[in-house]
């Protein structure tokens, strides 16, 4: 479980978050939405220990795998090398990856549909390909909590589908707890059980998707008219903005 109590964060004396409190139960999938600069990445960085709270507490019970929004390697590592780094907690100090580690890395590269890239230089890949490799790295750590910062931001529709389908399957088959930020409400509808709408540093809504992810709330969140739009039989729908000319 993830337990956030009265969390406040300031960076360079600038308040970013103030008095956030919520709990994410094991096996939940939380989608985090909000405008640019509202503090989504700061919140995730607090969860993974990259950012220290100014006040309040953050408790995560379980091994965390983290996928940042952007990652560039300073060295000429291969794709397989990058994914093997996710096995670090399972390899003894000064030890080398074993056959089991290579097998697990290859498994998750194939799961993310990038197994054919394993010998390529990581920095030569497109932004979308690198994102899929970084998700494979996090999964290779055999984490219990997977945290992703805008995992679909650099991906085309096909690769977005791969990511969303993979998150859904990992949650269903392994009970993995997943938190991800996104600008696409549809991703929340497709895979999330809960949603956090971050309005500003102090105002937010948290709850079940069906209760919180509404056209009215999204209209207020993004300050543009947003409507619920049906697009398939069986009640399936999305949200669409109406941009004024």
Describe this structure in words.
This protein is an alpha/beta fold and 245 residues long. Helices cover 32% and strands 27% of the residues. The chain is built from eight helices and eleven strands. The strands form three sheets. The chain has a six-stranded mixed sheet with strand order 5-6-7-3-8-9, with helices on both faces. Strands 2-1-4 form a three-stranded antiparallel sheet, covered by helices on one side. A hairpin with a 6-residue loop joins strand 10 and strand 11. It is globular and about 50 Å long. It starts with a strand and ends with a strand. The mean pLDDT is 91.
The CATH topology label of the largest domain is: Rossmann fold
- Spans of at least 5 consecutive residues with low confidence: none
Tell the overall outline. Answer: globular
Per DSSP, the total helix count is 8
Number of domains: 2
- State Rg: 19 Å
First-to-last CA distance: 45 Å
Average of pLDDT = 91
Strand line-up across the major sheet = 5-6-7-3-8-9
At the first level of CATH, what is the class of the largest domain?
Alpha Beta
